Amino acid sequence: MDAERRTSIRHRTLKEAKVVLHDSSTIDCIIRNVSEGGAHLDFTDPVPLPDHFEVLIVADNVLVPVERIWERGKAAGIRFTGPEKHVPPSRF
Q: How far apart are the C-alpha atoms of 19 and 75, rounded to whole Å?
């Protein structure tokens, strides 16, 4: 089970976010839960994601590099791979 592989506790949340691809295009999503090491993303439609990308947490204006761990239908699990960066609100 996924819960057995987790190294930290996940906390429920409901935050607006955007997947930021290498060409700077974005895909809207919702962060459903988050832990120290990663998060669960939900999309309105199935979206093929690359192995590595960034996630913008809109309310916090924070951009985080991530790695896709799993993908099922309209959901994906990600692992944070680097430090977060604060970005100007209008960047994306």
A: 12
Q: CA 38, CA 41: separation in Å to the nearest integer?
A: 10
pTM for the whole thing? 0.86
What is the C-alpha separation between 28 and 20, in angstroms, rounded? 9
Higher pLDDT, 25 or 10: 25
Please report, in angstroms and rounded to a whole number, the separation of the first and last CA atoms in the chain. 35
What six digits make up the tokens of 16?
A: 């607006």
In whole angstroms, what is the distance from residue 85 CA to residue 19 CA? 15
Q: What is the pLDDT of residues 29-72, one digit of tens each?
A: 999 999 999 999 999 999 999 999 999 999 999 999 999 999 99
- Report the 10 Å Cβ neighbour count for 31: 20
